[in-house]
Design a protein that fits this description.
By secondary structure, this protein is an alpha+beta fold. Helices cover about 15% and strands about 35% of the residues. The chain is built from 3 helices and 12 strands; from the N terminus they run E-H-E-E-H-E-E-E-E-E-H-E-E-E-E. Strands 1, 2, 3, 4, 6, 9, 11 and 12 form an 8-stranded antiparallel sheet that branches. Strands 5-10-7-8 form a 4-stranded antiparallel sheet. Strand 2 (about 35) and strand 3 form a beta hairpin. The longest helix is centred in the first third of the chain and has 19 residues, at about 55-75. The radius of gyration is 18 Å and the shape is globular.
Length: about 200
Amino acid sequence: MNSFFNLATNVILIKDMIDVIDFNLLRNEFDKLEFKRNKHNDISVDQKLFNREEFLIIKKILEREVADYLRNAYGANEFEDIEISNSWGNRTEPFGSHQDHAHPFSIVSGVLYLDDNPDNLNFAMNTSFQEIPCYLYRKQRQASIRELAGSENTLKNHLLLILSNVGHQVLPGQTDMTRRTIAFNTFWKGHTGTDDELNSRVF
């Protein structure tokens, strides 16, 4: 046998949600949002979008998706539930970008893609190679959705989930289209951890 085996640690979920979520409702409400300037893009003033009454069904659907992601991708079963802690709109102007960052105080972070925009594929995650003994530095790179999944699907009406501690960014846009997404963070709800009192918490 002559093979390389990749023991990947970061699992990314990309899922078509067109038959599950009312994206027309999301798009209509997105256009009514008030925005403020972030470092390189605009974010909605309202940071609790999915707490609005009209979005409560969508919120529950997304919370189930996050729980399933943790169970199926990471074998995490020692938690009672998970809930969306904050959610906001992102608006990135043509040829714009979003700085490298992660999401502290969150378990899983997600993005909903609203439009048929090739720049959706510019979402990139940081990855690093295992340190080589006696080597000088830890080599890192960014892997974009375009590199990982190809450019055939622009992710319109899709959901993307990653662990919140994974560094990520949006690479500079390549079209004259405004990129519109809704992002969210999550946190544990109820009991988490093992039956061992020192390794369990209630939130």
